[in-house]
């Protein structure tokens, strides 16, 4: 039924429920305030927060983040290329290796493919970080990596990073 004006709305509406689900004196008898709660309800007991150290993570200090840092590595002109990746390297005075990633949308249009390439690069870098010394390394994706070629891409990038290690003396 539709009413065009409030004058046509009946004054008598639905009757109130016998046991409304509202807090207060008119609440349902089974759910009044003193009723014990089931284990899944109510606030949880306080628990201690513990900081876990992730040994396999890549800290922010091990990443290139500023455009000037990337520019300095590109200007050093020391690079090695493979089928999927091109690696640029430059010595730094920090005493540790840092990683920068360049994965363009033109090379890998799908975000899934770009993220896959970045995961591969970070993992290979993390595994070889100690052997790289004080180097700033930029890894550029040359072409999208098919899922079937993931292992080959990892091996290629590992070989490119190994080529950086002997060049540390220069």
UniProtKB/TrEMBL annotation:
GO terms for molecular function: 3'-tRNA processing endoribonuclease activity; ribonuclease P activity; tRNA binding. PROSITE patterns: RIBONUCLEASE_P (PS00648). One of its GO terms (cellular component) is ribonuclease P complex. Its EC number is 3.1.26.5. Gene3D superfamilies: 3.30.230.10. It holds the Pfam family Ribonuclease_P. GO terms for biological process: tRNA 5'-leader removal. InterPro entries: Ribosomal_Su5_D2-typ_SF, Ribsml_uS5_D2-typ_fold_subgr, RNase_P, RNase_P_CS. It is an enzyme of class 3 (hydrolase). The keyword Hydrolase applies. It catalyses: Endonucleolytic cleavage of RNA, removing 5'-extranucleotides from tRNA precursor. Keywords: Endonuclease, Hydrolase, Nuclease, RNA-binding, tRNA processing. The keyword Glycosyltransferase does not apply. Consists of a catalytic RNA component (M1 or rnpB) and a protein subunit. PANTHER family: RIBONUCLEASE P PROTEIN COMPONENT. RNaseP catalyzes the removal of the 5'-leader sequence from pre-tRNA to produce the mature 5'-terminus. It can also cleave other RNA substrates such as 4.5S RNA. The protein component plays an auxiliary but essential role in vivo by binding to the 5'-leader sequence and broadening the substrate specificity of the ribozyme. NCBIfam families: rnpA. Belongs to the RnpA family. This is Ribonuclease P protein component.
């Amino acid at each position: 039924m539709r009413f065009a004006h409030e004058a046509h709305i009946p004054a008598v509406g639905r009757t109130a429920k016998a046991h409304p689900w509202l807090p207060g004196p008119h609440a349902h008898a089974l759910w009044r305030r003193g009723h014990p709660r089931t284990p899944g309800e109510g606030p949880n007991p306080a628990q201690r927060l513990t900081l876990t150290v992730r040994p396999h993570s890549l800290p922010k200090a091990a990443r290139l983040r500023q455009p000037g840092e990337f520019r300095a590595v590109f200007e050093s002109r020391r690079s090695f290329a493979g089928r999927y990746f091109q690696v640029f390297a430059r010595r730094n005075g920090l005493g540790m290796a840092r990683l920068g990633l360049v994965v363009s949308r033109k090379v890998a249009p799908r975000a899934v493919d770009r993220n896959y390439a970045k995961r591969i690069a970070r993992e290979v870098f993390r595994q070889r970080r100690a052997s790289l010394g004080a180097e700033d390394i930029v890894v550029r994706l040359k072409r999208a990596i098919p899922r079937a070629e993931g292992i080959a891409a990892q091996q290629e990038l590992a070989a490119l990073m190994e080529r950086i290690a002997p060049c540390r003396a220069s």
